[in-house]
């Protein structure tokens, strides 16, 4: 029996369904030559695939029901039980989490609108960040927020990019904002912690880095944008 191979990865970075095992071909009406050639072909999982997203690691994570984004929480962080789909005009998803003692917090907001298909259509970093942070009033940001730096960074999925900003809130708290634009959706993650906690600030960076956006097919997107949980198998 041939040794099993790990399942191939979809270009978006997700695991696709495993291919049928080679020994299943024996029952088919194949000639001896065809069967031997099939067995000699390299498994798809061994073929190099460019631009794959790094696998998600960690104990607790969150993935949207339409697979359009996901993130992984640092050890000990708690995901709010009401995280998920939002039934509001133009609002699609909201998720929040906090560190074990509640000193650090994170929020993800996803909205539908005329945002375009990439960041270039949304404007330069500083203007885009200001616009993005004001889209929904429940974002955990106040007038004392000061953006210290902003830049465009590459994502783990080939061709993806984000705007990333470091901000300060008064003298005691600071954090990071990461925004992405895809398929007329605006994705934002906002994470902050006490400025004097090196451990929590490191976790802020890890959490922001884990936040990734993925393109979805038109069937899945249509169901999701209409406010419905996509049917099983329609999102891949």
From TrEMBL:
Residue span, PsbP C-terminal domain: 61-213
A Pfam family hit: PsbP
Domain of life from the UniProt record: Eukaryota
GO molecular function: calcium ion binding
GO biological process, one term: photosynthesis
One Gene Ontology cellular component: photosystem II
Signal peptide: none
Protein name: PsbP C-terminal domain-containing protein
Organism: Coccolithus braarudii
């Amino acid at each position: 029996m041939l040794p099993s191979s790990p399942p191939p990865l979809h270009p978006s970075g997700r695991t696709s369904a495993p291919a049928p095992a080679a020994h299943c071909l024996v029952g088919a009406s194949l000639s001896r030559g065809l069967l031997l050639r099939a067995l000699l072909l390299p498994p798809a999982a061994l073929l190099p695939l460019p631009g794959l997203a790094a696998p998600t690691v960690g104990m607790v994570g969150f993935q949207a029901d339409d697979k359009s984004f996901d993130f992984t929480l640092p050890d000990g962080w708690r995901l709010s039980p009401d995280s998920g789909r939002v039934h509001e005009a133009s609002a699609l998803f909201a998720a929040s989490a906090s560190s074990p003692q509640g000193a650090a917090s994170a929020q993800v907001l996803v909205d539908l609108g005329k945002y375009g298909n990439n960041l270039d259509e949304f404007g330069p970093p500083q203007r885009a960040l200001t616009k993005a942070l004001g889209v929904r009033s429940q974002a955990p940001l106040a007038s004392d927020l000061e953006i210290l730096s902003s830049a465009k960074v590459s994502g783990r999925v080939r061709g993806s990019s984000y705007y990333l900003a470091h901000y300060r809130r008064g003298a005691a708290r600071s954090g990071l904002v990461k925004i992405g634009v895809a398929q007329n959706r605006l994705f934002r993650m906002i994470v902050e912690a006490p400025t004097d906690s090196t451990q929590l600030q490191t976790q802020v960076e890890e959490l922001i880095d884990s936040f990734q956006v993925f393109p979805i097919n038109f069937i899945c997107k249509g169901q999701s944008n209409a406010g419905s949980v996509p049917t099983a198998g329609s999102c891949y």
